[in-house]
Amino acid sequence: MAADLITVNGFTFCSEHGDELCYRCTYDFRDQNNYSIQDELDEEISELLSDVSILLFIVSSKFNCSLAISLLGFRIALLHSTSTT
Questions:
Q1: How many alpha carbons fall within 13 Å on the CB side of residue 78?
Q2: Where does the chain show beta strands of DSSP type E?
Q3: Coil, strand or helix at 46
Q4: Pairing mode, if any, of strands 11-14 and 5-8?
Q5: Is the confidence at residue 7, as pLDDT, over 80?
Q6: Who has greater pLDDT, 41 or 23?
Q7: Any residues with CB less than 8 A from the CB of 5 and at least 6 apart, and which?
Q8: Is the model's pTM score more than 0.90?
Q9: Distance between CA atoms of 8 and 84, rounded to whole angstroms?
Q10: What is the pLDDT of residue 4?
Q11: DSSP state of 20
Q12: With bands split at pLDDT 50, 70 and 90, how would you rate the model's confidence at 28?
């Protein structure tokens, strides 16, 4: 089977047809590919929850709007810089 698959950027596909779910070869790599990114998805969800927590804190404590915008801008820049590395 090893010769019948190809891995690109951590995702596995049928090497002959390039499909994650190949009906012609009857290979199905969807579960394997989903499992390989589960940790990344969990991390992104945690970061989003952190952003929501920041918003709730700002709203509940009636922070200055410019401070809120600065905090969120910093958070977005931080997320962007880590996703491009």
A1: 11
A2: 5-8, 11-14, 21-22, 27-28
A3: helix
A4: antiparallel
A5: yes
A6: 23
A7: 12, 13, 14, 15, 27, 29
A8: no
A9: 18
A10: 85
A11: S
A12: very high
